Structure formats: structure tokens, C-alpha cells
Amino acid sequence: MAQKLEKQERTTLKLQKQLRAYVKQIQEFTAHPFAVAGAASCLAQDQLSIAAWIPTLLLSPADYKPQSSPGALPDLPAYILFLCFRHADHCCDEPRARSLLDAAINAIKRVMKKHSDDFDVVALWLANTCRLLNCLRQYSQDEGNTVRQNEHRLQNVDPQSSCCSLGALAVQLYQQLIRTAEKRLKPMIVAAMLESEPIQGLSSSCPPGHRRSLQPVHGLGSFRAALDRHGLAPSVGHQVLRQLFFLISGTTLNYLLLRKDTCSWSCGIQLRYNISQLEQWLRAEGLQQSGACEVLEPLVQAAQLLQVKKVTEEDAGALCSLCTVLSTQQVSGTWGPVLGGGGLSHMAPLPGAALDVSTVSPQKKLQDQHGGGPSQLLVDTSHLFPVHLPFTTSPLHLDELRIPDALNLAFLVRL
């Protein structure tokens, strides 16, 4: 019993000693605030501890919400981290600069691992990672800066290796953002594109009273709003939307190629109408140049194949002239009844039209048109287009940065 009490006493003394050390450290942080914007000297005693503390405080919680902190910029964490990096540069303290960004990168990865399915959280930290990367690039050069911004240029620490690490992280975050959006969008695509509310007067595979709105448009709208809200560069947002339109197009086309119950003239009309709604949304949002329309083109051509008359050899020639982006197998699959096979071999012709296969020789027409081209049938919807993260300078002057009191970052003060 005496030995047990003695052991407990030693443990208590050890913990009390550690507690006194922590209290002293906190007192030093309070008495010697860490100067940031435009600072020329560093008053804190333990620089490496602060370098590790700042990203942990800012980045580990996923609940940084600029909208709940009046005056907070969406990319404020990136600016604060850069100010700390700049201070380390001013002090010629390269190890502290490196440890700061390493801690920031690790903290962002922890947040992403925990909140991988939250589109808003991923978008927020993608925007902050891009902003931090662009700040390092902007303030390591003179070009494109104002006179005041050039006064805050990096002088002693080469940010090149840090830019490489942040660039790789930004690409990972972008890919995670796409996968998160795809996971939410994919379940609604087929129902919305092929089974939505029918056009009046046309037959539909939907049972009476069964109606669906074009849900992808609403989903795309919410994604676009989140990207704007978190300050992501417009060109990156355009790439996100292009990728999601590719998913819509590929998923719908694959369904057409595999399911005979959608192979009808009325389905082609309905599909083209739904595609036009997506195109109209792009025009309304000013996104005609985003590349999204181009990735819809295979689906547009498939819808046209479902609508055109299929009776004579001339009809076969007309079909071939439509198909500029579909592979030979995809054209054959969509025009299955004439070819006597394929995934859509039971597709119905125009209402009232007799389909005389003996009068048509489309196989040669297709081969002449496509030159025996790609044999791919299904679209690989998991394909990701390469992402381009643009370099954009910030108009903000570092000495004008405001840190809202609501963030409780009292240890960050302006000298």
C-alpha cells in the first residue's frame, strides 16, 4: 500500500510540473502576442510551438463558417497562415516556415478524412489551399503586385517546395470534391433524364401520376452556389461543372445502351427536352464557355438517333452524318433494330413507320463514316479530366487584413 501511495505521489508531482510549464507557456503567449500583418519583429518566445498551434487552431475544427463571423473572408485562414509564413521569412527562420506549412497540410488532411462527404467543407478548404498557394507565388515575385504588396515580398525563404506540396494537396482536394458531388448526383440522373415528367401527348415509361422534376439542375445549382460562397476561382468551378455534366451524359448514355425499355422515339424526344433544360441552365448561369455543353454532345446525338426515321439506305446515311462523337459500337447500339443486334435491338421506329431491314445496309455506312474507329461501347464515367489550378493574384493588401473578434484569435495582433 505504501509503495502504491508513493507511486501516486510521484505521478502527481510530475503532472503538477507539466501543468506549471503549460501555464507558463500560455502566459508567454498572452504577454507576447504573435505579430502578423506587416510585422518586422517577433515577440513570442516559442516560435515552433506557435507555428504548430496556429494551423491546429484554425484548421483542425471543420466548423469554420465565415457566414457566422461577420467580416470574415472565406479564405481568411489561408491569409493568416501566409502572414505567419511571411513573419518566419522576415526572421530568416526557414525551419519554422516549413513546420508551419507541414502542420497546415496535415491538419487539412485530417479535416478532409473526417468530413470527406461534406461538399461545403471540401470546397472551403480547397479554396483556402488554392489561396495559400497563390499567396506564396504572388509574394515571391514582383510582377502583378502593387507597390504596397511588393513591400511584403518574401525575402529569405524559397517557397518552391512548399508550393509543390500545396499544389499536390489542392489536386487531391479537387478530386475529393468531384467524388463527393458525384456521390450525391449520380442516384438521380437516370430517373431525371429518362423518367421525368413526360411531354404532353407523348407516351412515357412512367406510370400515371408518377412525376419527377429535373433534379440534376437543382443539385448543380447548389454545387455552384457553394463554390461561389467559399470563394473558389471561377475557372476551377467551371471545371467542376464540366466534370459533373460528363457524369450526367455518360451515365444516361450507358443506360440507353444497356436497357431496351428506353429505346423509343418518345424517349428520344423526352431526352432531348431534358438536355435542353441543362443547356438552358448553363446559358442562364453564363457557363457556355465552361466546356459543359461539349461533354453533352454524345447524349445529344444519341437522342437524335432515337428520333430520326429508319427506313431506307438514305436514312442510314443521314444517321451517319449525325454521329461525329459517338463510337461505331455506340452508333450500332443506339440504332440496334437496323443492325439486327446490340443493346438496343428492340428500339421502336417512328409511330406508324414500317421498318424494312432488307432495304438498308447500314453496317458499311457506319464503317465508312467512322473508318472502323473506336470500339468503345460504354462511357467510363469514373474518368477525371486533368485539373488546372490557375494562378490568381489577390488584390488584398496584407496590412488591411481584418480578423473578426468572433474568431477568438486574440494572440494574433497588428503592430
Concise account of the structure shown:
It is built from 15 helices and two strands.
Give keywords.
15 helices, single chain, GTPase binding, Vascular_dev_regulator, Methane Monooxygenase Hydroxylase, Chain G, domain 1, mainly alpha, Dilute domain-containing protein, 415 residues, Dilute_dom
CATH class membership of the largest domain: Mainly Alpha
Taking strands numbered 1, 2, ... along the chain, how are they ordered across the largest sheet? 1-2
Could you please say which CATH topology of the largest domain applies here?
A: Methane Monooxygenase Hydroxylase, Chain G, domain 1
- Please work out how many helical segments DSSP would assign: 15
- Give the percentage of residues in beta strands: under 5%
- Overall, the morphology is elongated
Q: Would you tell me the structural class of the helices and strands?
A: mainly alpha
For the record, give the distance between the C-alpha atoms at the N and C termini, rounded to a whole number.
Answer: 58 Å
H/E element sequence = HEHHHHHHHHHHHHHHE
